[in-house]
Amino acid sequence: MLRTRTKQQEPDTAELFTAAYREFAGPLTGYLRARGVDDPEGVTQDVFLALYPRLADAHGGMPGIRTLLFTIAHARTVDHHRATARRPLHVEYDPDGDRRTVESAEDQVVAARSSAVAALATLEDDHRDVLALRIVADLPLEETARVMGRSVGAVKQLQRRALIALRGRVAEEVLV
Amino acid sequence: MNDESIRRLLEESDLPDDDALESALGDLRDLARTPAPAPSLEVAARMRPRRRRLGRRGGAVVTLAVVATLGTGLSAAALTPGVPQATFGAVQHLVGGGAAPAPQVPTIGATTTTTAAATPSASRAAAAPAASAAPATSAAAAAARPAAAAAAPGATVAAEAKAKARASKALRTPKSHHVPSPKATLHVSVHATVGTPTD
After folding, report:
1. Which of A73, A83, B10, B75 is the most exposed place for a label (fewest CB within 10 A)?
2. What predicted TM-score, i.e. pTM, was given to this entire model?
């Protein structure tokens, strides 16, 4: 019985997987970038490969799949940060610090975005996580709480503190 | 998340309007519009629906369906008056592996009954050869039994074997008194019923 059911679900799983990739691969890559993962594109592939066998258990249509996808991604970022904490520190190339080139208009837009990402990167890990889930992954408060394994009230408080911290960083950048 | 959502997020957190913070959140939101990376080979492989292969049960179902279709077609051919009996016999010989001529005997009997009596009870008439064939078989068996019994007391082993062979030969159904199978009876009854209105 189970065998028959699985065979019948195979084409649907492939269609669902393709639809999920089309809709969420971009935001997921953005989320992983906001969380400071080294290889966001590669981890995006890993997250989708981990999602595939769990698609049959997903409930709630595409919003449910989104929550499941970002739950997996959240776990991957936690693992990534634990692993990097044990490795020697790598210093990223900072284009703002490189005075050998002249910025184009496109570079200026990218720089504005990267400054916001840079400000986010200076926050505590929990603050960074809650803002990335709410703003980049576009998850509602309840789903964010589910992904982070916390209560809605705790996430609301965490979100408030994260926004206050980000406001402080942005104000510092404006002053500089 | 749009500008309205960002404002709602700030209100949710009891934070007054702050243009710089709102702008920073807008930049972060743009990360959600990152183009999707090309799927890796492993991911792309999971996007293709797998070809469903028939298992052992699936194969059995297909075989049954084919056999049933062939049987239905053969029955239809047998019921069609325009199909020559020789062609039908050849086809049935191919499908049935040589046991084809069996239904021909009751078919002839049924046709005779239909044309002679033209009554709806042709199925009973078609079953008659079966009844008449049965005593003939029993008679042959009965004739063979005394022969084997007579040879048994003083005969050698070879003679005994010969008697058994004769007995088994006698037990075989004679060609002229073939017992129709239930399938053949069904053919006859349907044929007779169909043929009635034309008379």
Report:
1. A83
2. 0.54
Chain B residues with CB inside 8 Å of A29's CB?
34, 36-37
> For chain B, percent helix, then strand, then coil, each to nearest 5?
75, 0, 25
How many cross-chain Cβ pairs, A to B, lie less than 8 Å apart?
121
CB contact under 8 A, B52 and A7: yes
**Chain B within 8 Å of A115 (Cβ-Cβ)?**
yes
Q: Of A39, A58, A89, at which residue does a domain stop?
A: A89
Q: Tell me: the pLDDT tens digits for A100-157?
A: 666 566 655 555 556 788 888 899 999 999 999 999 999 999 999 999 999 999 999 9
Start-to-end CA span in chain B (Å):
84
In a domain, A95, yes or no: no
Per the structure, the count of domains in chain A is 2
CB neighbourhood size of B186 (10 A) = 16
The interface pTM score, or ipTM, of the predicted complex is: 0.74
Owning domain of residue A169 = 106-176
The amino acid that residue A79 corresponds to is: D
Strand extents, DSSP E, B105-165: none
> Are both B165 and B135 inside the same structural domain?
yes
As given in the structure block, the two tokens for residue B168 are 């088994």
